[in-house]
Amino acid sequence: MTAKIKPPKGSPYARILGVGGYRPTRVVPNEEILKHIDSSDEWIRSRSGIATRHWAGPEETLAEMTLEAAGKAVADAGITADQVDAVIISTVSHFKQTPSIATEISDRMGAGKAAAFDINAGCAGFGYGLTQAKGLIAEGSATYVLVVGAERLSDLTDLTDRSTAFLFGDGAGAVVVGPSEEPAMGPSVWGSEGDKADVISQTVAWDEFRIGDVSQLPVDADGEVKFPAIRQEGQTVFRWAVFEMAKVAQEALDAAGVSPEDLDVFIPHQANMRIIDSMVKTLKLPEHVAVARDVETTGNTSAASIPLAMERMLATGEAKSGDTALVIGFGAGLVYAAMVVTLP
Ligand SMILES: CC(C)(COP(=O)(O)OP(=O)(O)OC[C@H]1O[C@@H](n2cnc3c(N)ncnc32)[C@H](O)[C@@H]1OP(=O)(O)O)[C@@H](O)C(=O)NCCC(=O)NCCS
Hints:
Blueprint: E1 14-22, E2 26-29, H1 30-33, H2 41-48, E3 52-55, H3 62-77, E4 86-90, H4 101-109, E5 115-119, H5 125-138, E6 145-152, E7 170-179, E8 189-192, E9 200-202, H6 206-211, E10 230-232, H7 234-256, E11 265-268, H8 273-282, E12 290-291, H9 295-298, H10 305-316, E13 324-331, E14 335-342
Parallel strand pairs: 4-5, 4-6, 11-12, 11-13
Antiparallel strand pairs: 1-7, 2-3, 6-7, 8-14, 9-10, 13-14
The structure holds coenzyme A.
The site of coenzyme A (COA) has 20 residues, from α2 and α7.
């Protein structure tokens, strides 16, 4: 006879309880980028909206940045690290294939034997993490979940590639998700379009890099195979983001039953100011909606971009606790994830 399995005892509703961020101390202006590529400050600002970004120094490792952000999020949530039941770290710039960075973070932050794993969902990684956190809480596998987006994209940037050299930044953003008495996280509208996998990708796979065939692979000025970096077809990604992601954002609003008028805050992935402006226009967001424009001084920090922008908006008073926010991430895969959330 098939044994009866008890129904889940989790909390049907979840909310973001706290947020924390870490930005490296070194600010890199466009002038520094221009040492390596033929471009101009004016071009970079007008085409991307980026004026400065933060690049991590040797002490600001992925783990150190993650621990800083995680510690702040845990404190902001009003819990202690040992109450965290699951640690989810979204990153594409952890250089050890195994073990995950999440287990190291769980141990070092004092989360004890919390479940811990990394996810690789590019610039949608934060939304993928939120989606999982909510599910884990609903089915009772966790009460408190730490979700972090952390990147050292400067390690994966080809400074001589004029289509990407100015885009990327480093940093970590974290939230704690926990149970809620009322709905505070809408349904996730997430997905992937693997037929477009080639439009954002690593230049050279690790095994190809190890073989190092200089006749097949991109080489630097010394004739050595270039270290792998992120490359993209900028215009293709731009068009996809502008046309397709506004639809996904609208679906997330509809799924949550929230109209643009009801929205207080819009936090899209910080990739390009023109993409942000275009989405605001397509979604017909009213004037009162505060829009994250962190890309200007942070660049594109992939999975870290949404929680970093969220933390800054709350810190500066552009957004306040209890506000209703639409978040949407999109990027390499191609992948996307959008959700309406109540801000911590
Ligand atoms: C990268 C990006 C800013 C480039 O802007 P763009 O307007 O698409 O630029 P294009 O690639 O079409 O190039 C336009 C012109 O500028 C030139 N150009 C490209 N890079 C340049 C640079 N760094 N400086 C000056 N000129 C540059 C091109 O050669 C081209 O010249 P041409 O018209 O004479 O042929 C933009 O495509 C983008 O942001 N894409 C999406 C990025 C993104 O979201 N990525 C990650 C998702 S996670």
